[in-house]
Amino acid sequence: MESSILKSPNLSSPSFGVPSIPALCSSSTSPISSLLLRSLNHRTAAGNFRISCSLSDSSPLPSHSPRRRPDYIPNRISDPNYVRIFDTTLRDGEQSPGATLTSKEKLDIARQLAKLGVDIIEAGFPAASKDDFEAVKTIAETVGNTVDENGYVPVICGLSRCNKKDIETAWEAVKYAKRPRIHTFIATSDIHLKYKLKKSKEEVIEIARNMVRFARSLRCEDVEFSPEDAGRSEREYLYEILGEVIKAGATTLNIPDTVGITLPSEFGQLIADIKTNTRGIQNVISSTHCQNDLGLSTANTLSGAHSGARQVEVTINGIGERAGNASLEEVRSENLLKCYEFFVMAIKCRGDHVLGGLFTGIDTRHIVMTSKMVEEYTGMQTQPHKAIDGMLKHKGTYEIMSPEEIGLQRSNEAGIVLGKLSGRHALRDRLNELGYVLDDGQLSNLFWRFKAVAEQKKRVTDADLIALVSDEVFQPEAVWKLLDMQITCGTLGLSTSTVKLADSDGKEHVACSVGTGPVDAAYKAVDLIVKEPATLLEYSMNAVTEGIDAIATTRVLIRGDNNYSSTNAVTGESVERTFSGTGAGMDIVVSSVKAYVGALNKMLGFKEHSSTLSKTPLETNNVPA
């Protein structure tokens, strides 16, 4: 990248006017496209984190000292360079196939997001189901009331469509937080108005205005409005509807590129145009929400921030929902929200140089733990990247950020090799260096698993430890637990399996079955015990290290034959829930059964919680508009 880019007058200050961002096809490369086009198709992995950007100056980047998070005011930020992080992992992220989360898992992730320092947690879509309502309410009551020593407490947000029932339900869920927010939306593009809403532009403006006013009448002082499919909406109409919701009391205007169709130059110009032409825009916060259909979501988000947006809506690991019938692998590789680990670190390493001094309140040291927690709970595995081989004479020659900044330690500097003679303290120290902070109970359970592996392997690697942590810590609440199993298989006859499980009361159950292979036989034996019909949708296995003695990790995705469904926030359609499970072990069949039992536990936990909630009527204020 030429150093002249750094001298551009458009980059010297956080201008809120129309920035000069050349088109991507131009011979003059824009700062946003230069920074991000080389990071496309990347994913975050707990062990490897890469953003490709460079400076003409060969000296290492200066350290970025933490800057004070401004006091929270819904419609204003005292520091014009501060960018709020709006995390929607628990709402948009859970729409991913197989990413169903239990209430406990949602609460765990919300607590971890608070440690990370996100400004707003969109905890869910309360009107989707009673389970979603209770999960959002619990997060509001707990995480939304936990204030740290600096006075930080995250805003807890609930999503709603533009109707009174949704808005009332969202308010009833989030109102227990110290800083509650309602986020309501309605489509504004011509194609959505014609085919989805079947309403005129004037009707949609009236609905949006009335529903924002209704949300404020519930004594909610923090209301966000989103014009769905803003990227394809007619500009003058956008200015008009946004101006009307501002007058009705909206405090944040979120501009979504719902179908991921815009380029960075286009999206940056869209934000700039809205800030120039919308009446009252100076009295609210502008926000972005970009999909990744063309692989440009992070670039679009940075372009929007450069153009004056001061809130960005993002998810951990880039997980997110996409309408249509794409397979799980297509959803992973093409239709994700931006991964805000990339956004945050791009701001951290280039905010002062290229983006006019932009900064966030994220504590990047918690990125690895948060990423791993979301990966294990959702079953949406991040794509690994091979690290640069060899010893660098000077880290600054290729390294723009250190592993320590995101919560990792360099294994070659840690100097710890774990084996069968290693004790608890050595195990705890290495886990801490990997970003895992476990309580005494979790460490004790993990220690005995570690010793069992160490007896069979000369050296226990970091990858082995990560697999063991995933298998012991990031598991759903146990309805059933695998105790023992025995398999007979080969070419001389059908495979047979004997499986022993313990239920939640500790009672042991044994079943035998035959199958076309060892895994099939074992799964059928589990089904005989659990008696909860399910269909196996996906099965995958990986070795975490090289060698015949490697630990195997298994991931399965199941769908209950009974109807477990929720409402899709965007389309309003009923969506069948799927449940993922993971397992790890040196025996591949044991690993497979653990994964299957884990998925069943998640499904049964969801069923039990939903049954409990169905006996409790959902209360709302029924406040008139």
TrEMBL record:
EC number(s) reported in the record: 2.3.3.13
Signal sequence extent: none
Pathway as given in its UniProt record: Amino-acid biosynthesis; L-leucine biosynthesis; L-leucine from 3-methyl-2-oxobutanoate: step 1/4
Catalytic activity: 3-methyl-2-oxobutanoate + acetyl-CoA + H2O = (2S)-2-isopropylmalate + CoA + H(+)
GO CC term, one of those recorded: chloroplast
Keyword line: Amino-acid biosynthesis, Branched-chain amino acid biosynthesis, Leucine biosynthesis, Metal-binding, Transferase, Transit peptide
SUPFAM superfamilies in the cross-refs: 2-isopropylmalate synthase LeuA, allosteric (dimerisation) domain, Aldolase
Major subcellular site: plastid
Domain Pyruvate carboxyltransferase: 83-368
Coiled-coil residue spans: none
GO terms (BP aspect): L-leucine biosynthetic process
CDD domains, A to Z: DRE_TIM_IPMS
Record-linked InterPro entries: 2-IPM_HCS-like (IPR050073), 2-isopropylmalate_synth_dimer (IPR013709), AIPM/Hcit_synth_CS (IPR002034), Aldolase_TIM (IPR013785), LeuA/HCS_post-cat (IPR054691), LeuA_allosteric_dom_sf (IPR036230), PYR_CT (IPR000891)
GO molecular function, one term: metal ion binding
Pfam families, per the entry: HCS_D2, HMGL-like, LeuA_dimer
NCBIfam families per UniProt: PRK00915.1-3 (NF002086)
Protein's name according to its UniProt entry: 2-isopropylmalate synthase
Species of the source: Arabidopsis lyrata subsp. lyrata (Lyre-leaved rock-cress)
